[in-house]
Amino acid sequence: MRRLFFFSNNKNKIIEIKKIFNNFNLELLSLIDLNISEEPEESGRTFEENAKIKSDYGFLKTGISCFADDSGICIESLKWKPGVLSKRFLNNFKSNEACFKSIIKSTKKNNKQNAYFKTSISLTMKGNQNVIFNGKIDGKISEQVKGRYGFGYDPVFIPKNYNKTLAELRTKEKNEISHRSIAVTKLINFLIN
Ligand code: IMP
After folding, report:
1. Tens digit of pLDDT for each residue in 83-99?
2. For burial by CB atoms within 10 Å, which of 16, 106, 110, 156 has the most?
3. How far does residue 13's CA lie from ligand 1's centre (Å)?
4. Using CA atoms, how far apart are residues 139 and 4, in angstroms rounded to an integer?
5. Residue 168: CB partners within 8 Å, gap ≥ 6?
6. Which long-range contacts (CB under 8 A, 24 or more apart) does 168-177 make?
7. Ligand 1 shell residues, CB under 6 Å
8. Which pLDDT score is estimated for 2?
């Protein structure tokens, strides 16, 4: 069975990605499985650059083909930010709730509801070969914080053609439409072809 290293310590991302990989004959290893605790600084200016920094690092440390994901939300009322700074943006508030309230307030004030999530996956393989796979999901900011599933910004994001936030969808449903599942599916197709 082909072994693949997913460079992430985000429990929720690991759950989502493992579910997608379940149907394929690939052994997925995580940072915990390989006993790696150090992570490189995410100093890139784009999702692609940050994902590559992480997958290159994972491959260098282990010699196992490694992929990493870098994701975030881009919000129209915030001039399409925070993007690559999504993690820092959320952590700058005293709670997720406070961040969500601020996003909803700015959305209402500017009367601009659109938003999207983007994931870039970078795969680094033998010979330092590198391939990037992108996934995007369009939607809008909800008027209220809703839902108890998922993670991060899921409770304020309503996918296009839906009337529920991503946090109201269980993993299986989120995986049918999400930015991450689009990018992971492209990665899997590349690996099996
Ligand atoms: P990173 O890719 O782990 O650096 O994530 C950046 C930020 O975006 C974190 O604050 C995550 O919580 C958030 N984020 C990434 N993916 C998702 C998602 O699928 N749903 C909601 N928030 C996400």
Report:
1. 999 999 999 999 999 99
2. 156
3. 8
4. 32
5. 146, 147, 148, 149
6. 171/15, 171/16, 171/19, 172/19, 174/16, 174/149, 174/150, 175/16, 175/19, 175/20, 177/137
7. 10, 70-72, 86-87, 90, 117, 150-154, 180
8. 82
Residue with tokens 């915030």: 78
SS3 category, 25: coil
Q: Which atom of ligand 1 is nearest to the CA of 71?
A: 2
- What b/e sequence results for 68-82 when a residue is b if at least 16 CB atoms lie within 10 Å of its CB, and e otherwise? bbbbbbbbbbbeeeb
Active site residue 70: yes
Whether the per-residue pLDDT at 1 is higher than 80: the answer is: no
Percentage of the chain modeled with pLDDT above 90: 83
Q: Which domains are delineated in the chain?
A: 2-192 (3.90.950.10)
pLDDT, tens digit (0-9, with 9 covering 90-100), for 147-162: 999 999 999 999 999 9
